[in-house]
Design brief:
Length: about 270
């Protein structure tokens, strides 16, 4: 006998087919449930008209300014204005941050040191005037200039003392041709001091400050001049008064500035 064969799978029921996949249905449901955005209203033309108006105003201003400039240029080219001559006068340069000034020399005044008259430029002449003492002090230098800003010459006399500190006394005399010149200024006791006349007819001094950070704790031989001052004639005070130097870099005093300028003129320290 033969056994009837059965076909595998024919009698099994196929699961019902659902339209679309699970992801497709979920996506469709999400799309159906998402709220629709309301339509945007058309943009207003107000901003556009504002920009156009602003550009128009700018163009009008540019054209107006151009017309004014052209008109003024035409007036200037039509005739030259002749300056009215004025009498010369003394000018002054103000010192930054203060009231000190560096005046322009008046008429008849020569800036800087000048040759001295015969008979009063000898050191021995001033030794007798100042009454120096042999072995104690003596006149070291004499120079002349219009220190009082007048055509007459004044004398700057320095007196050096013996000793390790090499102190210096500084004198300024007027009426130098008279038998008794008039002393108008004295500065005494400058340690390792020096004094000279500037290009502006002021008296410049240099000395050692023993208590400065540069010299404190050093021997006198190793101390360096680090205190610089400048004195200018004051008709109100009747003597020379200390003044400030209107400079900042690289020198803070006229003494240093003129010394550096001399070095530059000789070809040294060109960076200054």
């Amino acid at each position: 006998m033969s056994t009837p064969s059965t076909e595998t799978g024919k009698d099994q029921e196929m699961p019902p087919q659902t339209p679309g996949s699970f992801h497709t249905q979920e996506t469709v449901q999400q799309e159906k449930g998402f709220p629709q955005l309301p339509p945007q209203p058309p943009r207003s033309t107000r901003n556009r008209w504002f920009v156009v108006a602003a550009i128009g105003v700018v163009l009008v201003l540019i054209l107006s300014i151009g017309a004014v400039v052209i008109a003024q240029w035409g007036q200037r080219s039509g005739g030259q204005v002749q300056p009215i001559p004025t009498a010369p006068r003394t000018t002054a340069t103000a010192t930054p941050g203060g009231t000190d000034i560096t005046p322009t020399p008046p008429s008849g005044v020569t800036p800087g040191p000048q040759p001295g008259p015969a008979g009063v430029k000898d050191l021995a002449y001033w030794d007798a005037i100042i009454d120096t003492q042999s072995g104690v002090n003596k006149v070291e230098s004499v120079s002349f200039a219009n220190i009082m800003d007048t055509p007459a010459l004044q004398a700057l006399v320095t007196v050096r003392y013996t000793g390790a500190d090499a102190r210096l006394d500084v004198y300024v005399f007027n009426n130098i041709a008279s038998a008794k010149p008039t002393q108008i200024f004295k500065l005494a006791g400058l340690v390792k001091g020096d004094a000279s006349i500037s290009h502006y007819n002021t008296v410049m001094t240099a000395e050692v400050d023993k208590n400065s950070t540069l010299n404190a704790g050093k021997s006198m031989a190793n101390m360096t001049s680090d205190l610089f001052r400048e004195f200018n004639w004051s008709s109100k005070a009747g003597t020379l008064v200390q003044t400030a130097f209107p400079g900042l870099f690289p020198d803070l005093t006229r003494y240093q500035a003129e010394a550096d300028q001399l070095q530059v003129n000789q070809g040294h320290q060109p960076w200054k």
